[in-house]
Design brief:
By secondary structure, the chain is an alpha+beta fold. The protein folds into two domains: about 55 residues, no CATH class; about 80 residues, no CATH class. The chain has six helices and seven strands. The chain has a three-stranded antiparallel beta sheet with strand order 2-1-3, covered by helices on one side. A two-stranded antiparallel sheet has the order 4-5. Strand 1 and strand 2 form a beta hairpin. Helix 3 packs across helix 4 and helix 5 runs antiparallel to helix 6. The protein is elongated.
Length: about 150
Amino acid sequence: MLCAIVNNNVVTAIQTLNPNDGTGAYQAAAQSCQILIDITNTVPQPQVGWTFNGSTLVSNGATSMLITKLAFRERFTAAEIVGIIQASQLQNTEGYEIQMLLQNQSLATFVDLTRSDVAAGMLLLESFGLLTAGRANTILTTPPTAIEIYQG
């Protein structure tokens, strides 16, 4: 189950824990925090920084901009992805830079839409004509849906 770990009435972590997996991780987490709340089916999905008012979790107004790698890829159209893949196969500086961007995403655990290097990579794709003007901004600033947010 997806659990919000609450300390001092603030969600300090979100973890997937199973009380019956035999590892004791669920029990250890429950003992080391103020309260452990099952948020598996909660919509909208609570995030780190939300507050606990004694009975419910309340948004702090901030939206996590950490998304899964798949969610990031799905923000691109099929035509954009095909163009990026084709351009990455060019044996020139543009192709090598695109290969580097794809490798970085492959190595990442998640994509932080607020990072300057992610923005720079997106603007690079725009400058190469692989994204239309303004697409990078749209991809980077659209608030994530509950399913897109990286739960780590």
